[in-house]
Amino acid sequence: MFLNHYECPRCDGAWSDSWFCQVDDDCPHCGLRHVSPENSLECDDAADYAQEEAA
Ligand SMILES: [Zn+2]
Fold it and tell me: Where are the beta strands (DSSP E) in 8-51?
């Protein structure tokens, strides 16, 4: 798992999300799509597996 940290170039919003790889994500603040991760932490902790299916 990777814990990806994103910073939106449009609204300066920041968020983190955990994925199986380093993927682009959509800004939850303004909806800007395909934001690349600023940095990623590799993590094996299953407790971080909090991905929501409905998102
Ligand atoms: Zn944004």
Answer: 14-19, 37-42
Using the mean position of ligand 1's atoms as its centre, give its distance from the Cα of residue 34 in Å.
11
Residue 45: CB atoms within 10 Å: 9
Cα(19) to centroid(ligand 1), Å = 19
pLDDT score of 37 more than 90:
yes
Does the reported pTM lie above 0.90?
no
- Model pLDDT, residue 53: 54
